[in-house]
């Protein structure tokens, strides 16, 4: 999984943190959680605010 796989990352975050409301998550926490996903294999420094926003939006949709 890479930073561009926003939907797959969002699904994995939803599965890993089912009791977390994504609207309350800080980007710094979400970044750390993404890096901790076993399937994640991308450069930790390659993310940016736009990428994290896309992942967060997908996670919010997944949580609905």
| Main β sheet profile | none
Which descriptor suits the 3D outline?
A: globular
Mean pLDDT: 98
Encode the helix/strand succession as letters.
Answer: HHH
Describe this structure in words.
Helix content is 56%, strand content 0%. The protein is mainly alpha-helical and 64 residues long. It has a single domain (6-63), classed as IscX-like (Arc Repressor Mutant, subunit A, Orthogonal Bundle), CATH 1.10.10. α1 packs across α3. The mean pLDDT is 98.
Key traits:
single chain; 64 residues; Arc Repressor Mutant, subunit A; 3 helices; 56% helix
Provide a concise account of the structure shown:
The chain is mainly α. The chain contains 3 helices and no strands.
SSE topology sketch:
Blueprint: H1 6-16, H2 27-36, H3 49-63
Helix pairs in contact: 1-3
Protein name: FeS assembly protein IscX
Pfam families: Fe-S_assembly
Organism: Kerstersia gyiorum
């Amino acid at each position: 999984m890479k930073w561009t796989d926003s939907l797959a990352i969002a699904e994995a975050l939803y599965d890993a943190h089912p009791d977390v409301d994504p609207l309350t998550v800080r980007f710094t926490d979400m970044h750390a959680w993404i890096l901790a996903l076993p399937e994640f294999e991308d450069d930790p420094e390659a993310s940016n605010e736009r990428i994290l926003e896309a992942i967060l939006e997908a996670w919010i949709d997944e949580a609905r």
